[in-house]
Amino acid sequence: MPLTRTPLLAETVRKLVARGAYVNAYKILNRLHPSDIAAILGDLSEHLRRDTFNTLYQRNLTLASEALAELGPERGALILSGMSAQEISAILQELDPDDAADFVADLPDELQEQILGAMREKEASEVEDLLQYPEQTAGRIMSPKVFSLDEDTTVAEAIQSLQAAGDLEMVFYIYVVDEHGNLVGVLSLRQLLLKRPETTLKDIMETDVIRVTTDTDQEEVSQLVASYNVLAVPVVDVQNKLVGVITVDDVIDVIKEEATEDMYRLAGLDTDERVFTSPRTSFKKRVPWLVVNLVTAFFAALVVSQFEDVIAQFALLAVFMPIVPGMGGNAGNQTLTVMVRGIALGELSWANSRKALFKELLVGLLNGILIGLLVGAVAFVWKGNPLIGGALCLAMIGNLLVAAIMGTLVPLTLRWMKVDPALASSVFVTTATDVTGFLLFLGLGTFFLARF
Amino acid sequence: MPLTRTPLLAETVRKLVARGAYVNAYKILNRLHPSDIAAILGDLSEHLRRDTFNTLYQRNLTLASEALAELGPERGALILSGMSAQEISAILQELDPDDAADFVADLPDELQEQILGAMREKEASEVEDLLQYPEQTAGRIMSPKVFSLDEDTTVAEAIQSLQAAGDLEMVFYIYVVDEHGNLVGVLSLRQLLLKRPETTLKDIMETDVIRVTTDTDQEEVSQLVASYNVLAVPVVDVQNKLVGVITVDDVIDVIKEEATEDMYRLAGLDTDERVFTSPRTSFKKRVPWLVVNLVTAFFAALVVSQFEDVIAQFALLAVFMPIVPGMGGNAGNQTLTVMVRGIALGELSWANSRKALFKELLVGLLNGILIGLLVGAVAFVWKGNPLIGGALCLAMIGNLLVAAIMGTLVPLTLRWMKVDPALASSVFVTTATDVTGFLLFLGLGTFFLARF
To answer: Which value does ipTM take for this structure?
Structure first.
């Protein structure tokens, strides 16, 4: 969230709260957009952030709630953690039910009950309904406030209903339902303007409605919205009853979240972690991945261990030991990243995977030859030993081919097994390039040095 | 692009084109949404894709153009490469100018001129105008077809103009301009419905319009749209004259593109590469990064080289050599990924970087102690040598602290130097963890083994 519109005001607010002038800071914040306020709050230290938010909360509950929603559950939770259940529920009942559900879901169970108990009944039950759906599904991220009309409504009546509908900010489409509440059609606001007032919706609506069910994965929802260029997608239950709507602004959040997830998983990070997750939590979340990598590092050590006697004789081997597996790891990571992103963007599937593998093998071979010759030449010039150079060159070619194969097949196989390809691919790929890298270099090195 | 809506039809089309029944395949494609067609085309082999597209092109030019736009310039270019300039221009003039500009920009200069020359004059000049703006700026990705009305227009006249406006699919906002064409206000379609017909726009418009200029970076545009939850943002020139509009569907493309860019840069990939980029191009794009990594690998080798004599004496050192730098690399990569994503999402800045560094140091220390004790214990049990274990443990703690420092400071420094933090960070971080990892482990190992 760059403060493109308000950098000077943000600076002023920071200075004011730094010297405790919260009321003056409030006077500025009160004139800003909620997302500008969120950006300013996000940049403050925890202590100042909480105090600034409190000032805002006491003077303008609606604005405070909106700013909190923009801040998001991760960063907002720190603010809420200092408040009573009563205060929290006063804020959350101002939010859209889907935003409120995001916050509530992150709280401890006991506090959840207290807060929902203290909220107005209508808002509490909306939030409770959403919380029944699993995380990352359409049901969980939808807004239950969906604007729908009966199929027998006329255009004139529809326009009147729109005018009467109060706080529905993002109405782009009018969903049309039959007498059972089942979704039967859609039309855009603009289409309403083009038709005669007495026409009924049933005669002008589009009946082929792009829809999702409550259990559709949020990633699929976002791909659907992105593919079909729609601004909102209606959510129906198993009986095709219209129960909610997911708008494009939520989809943008999902797209960002899914991209973060892929990047994080490639690096062995838990998807919930952020820059300012507490050190304790970060430690607990990162250490398992490091332990998994440690196990694979011991595989590599086991390989090297087989060559201990040779290394004692030719210590020169140890000098060049890190190079082949290191380069294999880099090349494997390049291939892997292209594949994982290709799968996420829907460009790669089993159907066209043979072509992808063939391509990666060719690239691996070309890279292997070039890098192999280069590293062999440098080793020869540096240490005056052509045998080490030859072993390095051949091992490099072999290892870059392994990197190409594993980098392509591991993510495809994981996906075929219905595991997120970003999740565990890099462990397998790195283990393969490490083990074969050491094996090839030390094996070839032993062979060359012993024979010639 | 998952074929959630049409998996069976897609399969049928694939079978039909595989046995050359293009006309039958066309009959199915003709009933599908352009993005479904694009998804099917994307899954075909190059040869079949071109032939299928040709059949579609000859029978339904509009649909073919729309499908091509959905396919995007990278994958669409392969199709166009087999066509004449005449044919290409017939397709491109059907597209929205911003989509057409995307395709034209990727073509060789000479072909660009031929194609623009063969297009209808109006469309050609719209595309030429867009091409004057640098890539990845608002001017380049905007649509010049923006719906605007004079501030003295009444609500009734505005509704009439909307009804008359033909092919403007995504009208969400009406931008209001003064007599010089300068942007002075905005109102939503829905607001029009709420007001009396004789009201002039000037009296009901919102004057604080979120806008960007033609040279605004596309990443900033996407952050703006995401932050303020708007569906479109108007683009003005330096004189504040309204020249275009960027809609949320384009913003979604930008968000995906920028996420791909960050993932790719972390892995040392060129941002233009895709799964099916030609092997030759992929080779040329990947090899420079591998060479850069090779140079850093030689730094590591240089460090090891200083310990050649010790290794000749204690070859056991070589067995455990890969572990410390490897784990340092993994930990550094975790920190780096959190920071790069934090910067991209606007959560991390210089202002709060001290806090981030302190946190990472603490996490690095905890991880270092735990992993260090673990690796030391395993080494002791395996090889019965407590000295190697001690050296491993201390070196691990030191190296994970280095990983924390470098993982945090390198991306922040690059950003401060106005370089994309994702671009070169991992080289610096890996070099640091490799060099200090070998130095610490071999140094401590030498010290311990020689003394005790």
So the answer is: 0.78
